[in-house]
């Protein structure tokens, strides 16, 4: 049985930051895995 693309994307699990475990607010053209807080920490290092 095939499901519609809309239903497929709607049922995907939320992305979680591998550094801190916080749910990542996804953006359409973003391929980052980390949350904004962890990304900013990496930029400071």
TrEMBL record:
Pfam families reported for this sequence: YhfH
UniProt protein name: Protein YhfH
Organism: Robertmurraya beringensis
The encoding gene: yhfH
